[in-house]
Amino acid sequence: MTKVPGSVGLPILGDKSIDFYRDPIRFTLKHIENTNSRVFCARFLNTPTVFVGCNSTLKELLTDGVRHTDMGYKAFMEHIFGQNILFTDGDMAAGLRQSLSQLFTPETVKTYQQRVERIVNECLHEVESSEYICLYTFMKRICTQICLSLFLDLDFHQASDTANSIVALTTTHWHGIISVPLSIKLPGSGGSTYRKALDAKEELLKIIIHKKEQNDSAGSFSHKVQQCPHGNEDIFVNNHLLLFTSALVPKALSSILTSFFIEISGDHRDLQSSVLEDSILMESLLLEAQRMYPPFLGGRRLATEDFNLNGYKVHKGHALVYLTYAAHRDPAVFDNPEQFDPHRWTGRNSQDKDKIHCFGGGPRGCIGQNLVWQIIQTVIVGLLTKYSVTLKEGQDLTHKWLPVSRPKNEILVKFVRKTEQQIDTDGS
Ligand code: HEM
Q1: Is 296's C-beta closer than 6 angstroms to any atom of ligand 1?
Q2: Site to substitute for ligand 1 among 359, 364, 380, most atoms within 8 A of C-beta
Q3: Nearest residue by C-alpha to atom 17 in ligand 1
């Protein structure tokens, strides 16, 4: 076993958290260059931490690594979300996963489709102007409506005041999640933001409990959660509804949709007319959007014992940060990794879909993926069937990566309604 290259430095003095948060990509590239390794160590959040940006090592961490690691989110996020699956390990986590997975099987997800389609159709009129609109803002609005409607049975048209105040609460809650004090204070992160977020969490839980009592029809999501094996436990039901209705999910969905639409309305505009009828092209574009712009830069684990990670010695008590961003740009797997090239997925990388880790992987991978793909495809098909979309020229497309990746600036696009003849031709 090799020692992980790099240095974990002295407590507090050697901490690199501020460097990381200031510019996580620069931090990553600098350490990869200095250590000449895509697996390196540094002191982060004042804990010796192994950073994993090598694709094969990341995969091993998420699969075999579960035997030697715990999830690493509890200390920072449990308070703001309450107890949920993300903060559990071992048998408890396996039991919760089995229970919650029932909500997201392909068959169950089909039962949500009518509602998703209705919301997408209701939102389409918003793009119907000759003006440029901010792509991310639009995607965020549509995905928020879908999630709150699915998980809380909220109707944005009939109860717009209630809906808007719930959206405001999820925003305040979100600001607390990202201000999570960690043990270091970052510029701009204040205690009062965190306090307000905890209050917002309590308000959201009250609404969730109220909605749960109101919506006991068999088709409602909250009813389905209550039918899960753990569904008689209030904490299980309420806290998972809180997790799903938090701003995290719509932000991640909007991130993928925004990356897809930037490419298809800009550099790859020529693919717009064929993408709806060519499912392989659609899949390639979505894989490439995920590869280059994963919504989450990475994730965290804690070593529960000394272990061998793909040849590297990892010590008990050390943290591990897996860097999805870096693993997706690992030149050992992807030629010209900085280039957006959907055609790689039908060529050299046709067997490499399992090397994309936007949704984590292994026994703790995302359980919401069936739903995610259903929502994403419905939004794309809904928009591209009726509209052609053009990216405004000359915009700065720089991406930001924390807390959820998206363009740094407002990116403007224009949707133009197709004629009936165009709709028939593109759809045939
Ligand atoms: C684009 C949207 C989404 C992305 C990018 C995403 C990504 C992820 C990732 C990376 C993980 C693994 C975290 C880790 O191992 O460190 C995860 C776990 C999880 N996801 Fe998602 N997710 C998305 C949407 C959803 C949705 C819609 C749901 C359900 C409503 C969901 C439910 C979960 C749950 C419950 C876990 C925890 C699984 C466990 O702890 O065993 N996710 N997700």
Answers
A1: yes
A2: 359
A3: 366
The rounded distance, in Å, linking the Cα atoms of 183 and 282 is: 43
Phi then psi for residue 131, to 5 deg, are -90, 160
Distance 419 CA to ligand 1 centre (A): 39
What is the distance in A from the centroid of ligand 1 to the CA of 364?
9
Ligand 1 pocket check for 248: Cβ under 6 Å: no
**Closest ligand 1 atom, residue 364 Cα:** 41
Residue-number span of the structural domain to which 402 is assigned: 2-427
List alpha helices for 293-337, DSSP H: 324-327
> How far, in Å, are 62, 104, 113, 194, 210 from residue 221 at the CA level?
29, 11, 13, 29, 14
Per residue in 227-259, pLDDT (tens digit) is: 888 878 888 899 999 999 999 999 999 999 999
CA 86 to centroid of ligand 1, rounded, Å: 9
For the chain, percent of residues with pLDDT exceeding 90: 77
Q: What is the mean pLDDT of residues 189-218?
A: 84
Q: 């957006």: which residue's tokens?
A: 340
Number of domains into which the chain is organized: 1
pLDDT tens per residue, range 345-391: 999 999 999 999 999 999 999 999 999 999 999 999 999 999 999 99
Over the chain, what is the mean pLDDT?
92
CATH of the domain at 422: 1.10.630.10
pLDDT of residue 125: 84
Residue 416 pLDDT level (bands cut at 50, 70, 90): very high
- pLDDT digit string (tens) for 254-306? 999 999 999 999 999 999 989 999 999 999 999 999 999 999 999 999 999 99
DSSP 333: T
- Cα angle for residues 133, 137, 139 (degrees, 5° grid): 100
- The reply to whether ligand 1 has any atom less than 6 angstroms from the CB of 368 is yes
Spatial CA neighbour of 50 closest among 11, 10, 84, 3: 3
Any atom of ligand 1 within 6 Å of the Cβ of 359 = yes
What's the CA-to-centroid distance between 390 and ligand 1, angstroms? Answer: 31
